[in-house]
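for the recovery benchmark. C-alpha cells below, seq after
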C-alpha cells in the first residue's frame, strides 16, 4: 500500500514539479537576462544554441536534451524524498519491533536504491552528452568568430587589447559549458529539495520552549534562520575570491605564454646567452602567480573554515531540537531520524548558494573573458581597412593615407596603378613604411584611409620569414591551399624548380619544418608556393633577403617566365632587384613618395 501510494503521488509530484520548474526557469531566466550583466552574457553565449530555429528540426535537440536532463533532476529529488520516507518507516518498525514492516522497508529500499543508481548513471550520461555537444558548438562559434575578418591578428590594434585569446578559447569554453550545467541543474535541484524537505520538516517540527517562550514549528524556523545568516556571513567572506580567481587565470596564462615564447625563440636566446634575463623575467611572473595563490589560500582558510563550522553544527542541531519531543514520545524514532535527514537536506539545498559561491565567482570571470573575446573580435573587425573593390586585373590605389598609430604620416595620398603582369619595386630607407604599405594593401593595418582595388583571383604575400604550418612538408609547400588539392607531381616539380629537390623524399614527413629548414630554404619554399598557386597578384616583402643574388635572380626569373600575367609588388633594399622590375615606388618619409620607370 505504502509503495503504491508513494509511486502514484510520486508520479503526480514529478509531473507538477517539472512544469513548475520549466515556468520558473523561463521567468527567472528572463529576469536575470534583463536585470543582470552575467545573465545577458550567458544568453549572448548560450541563447543561439538553445533557441530552436523555424524549419530546422535538429535545432530542437539542445532544448529537448535540456528538458530531459531537467526531468531526470526532478525524478532524482523525488527519489530522495521517497528514500527518506522509507527510512522513517524502517526506524519506526525497529522501535515498534514490527518485523514484517521492517522487511517491507528493506525490500522497498532495495528497489528505490536500484532505481536511484540507474537514474544517477543515466543523468550523468545525458548530462555529459549535453555538455559535450554544447562545448563543441560554442568552441566552433568562438573559434570562427576569432578567425573571421582577421580579428585574431587585428585585435592587437584595438584600444585595449585582450590577453591570452588561446586560453579563452581552449579553457574558458570548457569551463563555461560545464559550470553552466552544474549551476543551473544544481540550482533547480536545490530549489526542489528545499520545497520537498521543508514540507516534511514542517510536518515533523513542533513547538520549542526557550525561557518560558514557545516557538511553534521551531525546527523549520531554526534551519532557515541558521542557513540564511550563515550564507550572508560566508558570502561576505568569500567576495574577494571573484577577483582572485580572475587574476589567477590571467597570471597563469601569462606565465605559460612566457614559457612558450622561450621555447619558440630558443635558438636566438641560446645564441645571445639570454637565459639569465629570461629566467629573471619568468621567475617574476611566477612570483606573481604564487603571491596570488597565497592570497587565495588565506581567503579560503576563512571561507572554508566558516563553511565547515556551519556544516558541522548543522549535523547536531536537529537532534538537539527534536530530542525533547522524542523522549516525551511525541515523535517516533523514524520521525526523529527523518528530522535530521530532512534538516540536512534543507540545509544542503539552502547551502547551494553558499557552496556554489566560489564556483559562481570563477564562472563570472569566465563569462567576462569569453564575452571580452567576442567584443575584442568585433572591435578588431570594425577597425578601418582601405575600401576594397575588385574591379581591376592589376592593382590600383587611390588617395591612400598610411599612418603610424600616433597619427604621424608614413605615406600620404598615394595614387598608383599597376597593370596586370607589371612588376613594381617599393624602396625606401629602413622604417619608411614599406612593410606597413603591404600590410595596408592586405587589409591588416588599421591606420589607413583610401581605396585599394585588387584582382579577384588569389593574392599571395611572401614575407621575409615565411610561415610553415605544423604537419607534413607537403602541406607547408601548398599552404594555404589544402595539400590534397594539388597533384603530387606538381608539388615535386615546384620544389625541384626552386632548387629544393632534396626535400621531395620528405614530402609526407611530419616535423616542425619551421625550425628544421634554414631561412634561405624557407624563402625558396615560399617561391615554390607562388609557382604552385599561380596568384593574380603577389607581394614579396624582402623575400630573398637570406639568398645570394644569383639565387634571387633565378627565383624571380622563374616567376616571370611561368606566371607572365601575375602582377608583382616587391619590397627590398638590394640594387640587384631594380633590374628585375619595371617600375619603382620610393617612400621618402613623412608621407612623401615618388614613382618612376626602371630599365629592365
Ligand atoms: N605595430 C606597430 N605599432 C607601432 N608602430 C609600428 C608598428 N609596426 C610598425 N611600426 C612602425 O612603423 C614604421 C614603419 O615600419 P615598417 O616595418 O613598415 O618599415 P620598413 O620600411 O618596412 O622598414 P625595414 O626596411 O627596416 O623593414 C616604423 O617606424 C615602425 O617602428
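predicted aa per position
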Amino acid at each position: 500500500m505504502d509503495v503504491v501510494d508513494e509511486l502514484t503521488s510520486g508520479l503526480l509530484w514529478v509531473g507538477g514539479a517539472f512544469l513548475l520548474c520549466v515556468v520558473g526557469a523561463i521567468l527567472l531566466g528572463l529576469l536575470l537576462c534583463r536585470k543582470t550583466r552575467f545573465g545577458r552574457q550567458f544568453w549572448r553565449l548560450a541563447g543561439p544554441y538553445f533557441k530552436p530555429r523555424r524549419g530546422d528540426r535538429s535545432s530542437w535537440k539542445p532544448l529537448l536534451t535540456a528538458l530531459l536532463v531537467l526531468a531526470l533532476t526532478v525524478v532524482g529529488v523525488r527519489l530522495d524524498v521517497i528514500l527518506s520516507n522509507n527510512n522513517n518507516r524502517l526506524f519506526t518498525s525497529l522501535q515498534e519491533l514490527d518485523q514484517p514492516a521492517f522487511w517491507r522497508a528493506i525490500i522497498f529500499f532495495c528497489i528505490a536504491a536500484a532505481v536511484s543508481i540507474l537514474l544517477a548513471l543515466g543523468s550523468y550520461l545525458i548530462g555529459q552528452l549535453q555538455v559535450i555537444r554544447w562545448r563543441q558548438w560554442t568552441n566552433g562559434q568562438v573559434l570562427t568568430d576569432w578567425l573571421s575578418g582577421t580579428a585574431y591578428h587585428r585585435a592587437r590594434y584595438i584600444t585595449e587589447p585582450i590577453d591570452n585569446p588561446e586560453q579563452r578559447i581552449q579553457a574558458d569554453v570548457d569551463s563555461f559549458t560545464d559550470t553552466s550545467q552544474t549551476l543551473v541543474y544544481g540550482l533547480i535541484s536545490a530549489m526542489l529539495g528545499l520545497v520537498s524537505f521543508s514540507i516534511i520538516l514542517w510536518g515533523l517540527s513542533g513547538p520549542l520552549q526557550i525561557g518560558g517562550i514557545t516557538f511553534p514549528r521551531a525546527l523549520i524556523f531554526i534551519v532557515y534562520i541558521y542557513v540564511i545568516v550563515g550564507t550572508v556571513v560566508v558570502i561576505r567572506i568569500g567576495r574577494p575570491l571573484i577577483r582572485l580567481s580572475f587574476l589567477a587565470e590571467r597570471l597563469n596564462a601569462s606565465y605559460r605564454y612566457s614559457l612558450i615564447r622561450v621555447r619558440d625563440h630558443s635558438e636566438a636566446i641560446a645564441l645571445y646567452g639570454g637565459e639569465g634575463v629570461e629566467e629573471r623575467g619568468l621567475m617574476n611572473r611566477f612570483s606573481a602567480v604564487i603571491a596570488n595563490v597565497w592570497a587565495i589560500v588565506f581567503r579560503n582558510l576563512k571561507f572554508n573554515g566558516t563553511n565547515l563550522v556551519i556544516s558541522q553544527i548543522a549535523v547536531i542541531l536537529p537532534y538537539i531540537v527534536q530530542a525533547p519531543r522524542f523522549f516525551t514520545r511525541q515523535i517516533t524514532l523514524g520521525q526523529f531520524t527523518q528530522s535530521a535527514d530532512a534538516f540536512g537536506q534543507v540545509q544542503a539545498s539552502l547551502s547551494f548558494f553558499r557552496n556554489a559561491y566560489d564556483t559562481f565567482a570563477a564562472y563570472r570571470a569566465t563569462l567576462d573573458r569569453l564575452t571580452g573575446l567576442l567584443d575584442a573580435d568585433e572591435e578588431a573587425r570594425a577597425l578601418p581597412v582601405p575600401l576594397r573593390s575588385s574591379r581591376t586585373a592589376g592593382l590600383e590605389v587611390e588617395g591612400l593615407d598610411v599612418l603610424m598609430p600616433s597619427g604621424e604620416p608614413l605615406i600620404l595620398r598615394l595614387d598608383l596603378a599597376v597593370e596586370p603582369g607589371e612588376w613594381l619595386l617599393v624602396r625606401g630607407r629602413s622604417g619608411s613604411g614599406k612593410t606597413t604599405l603591404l600590410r595596408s594593401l592586405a587589409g591588416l593595418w588599421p591606420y589607413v584611409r583610401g581605396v585599394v582595388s585588387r584582382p579577384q583571383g588569389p593574392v599571395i604575400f611572401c614575407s621575409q620569414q615565411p610561415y610553415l604550418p605544423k604537419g607534413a612538408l607537403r602541406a607547408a609547400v601548398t599552404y594555404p591551399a589544402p595539400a590534397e588539392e594539388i597533384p603530387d607531381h606538381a608539388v615535386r616539380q615546384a620544389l625541384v624548380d626552386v632548387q629544393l629537390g632534396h626535400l621531395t623524399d620528405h614530402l609526407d614527413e611530419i616535423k616542425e619544418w619551421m625550425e628544421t629548414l634554414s631561412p634561405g630554404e624557407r624563402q625558396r619554399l615560399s617561391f615554390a608556393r607562388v609557382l604552385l598557386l599561380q596568384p593574380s597578384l603577389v607581394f614579396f616583402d624582402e623575400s630573398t633577403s637570406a639568398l645570394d643574388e644569383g639565387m634571387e635572380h633565378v627565383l624571380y626569373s622563374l616567376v616571370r617566365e611561368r606566371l607572365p600575367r601575375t602582377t608583382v609588388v616587391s619590397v627590398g633594399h638590394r640594387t640587384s632587384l631594380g633590374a628585375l622590375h619595371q617600375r619603382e615606388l620610393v617612400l621618402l618619409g613623412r608621407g612623401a613618395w615618388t614613382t618612376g620607370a626602371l630599365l629592365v
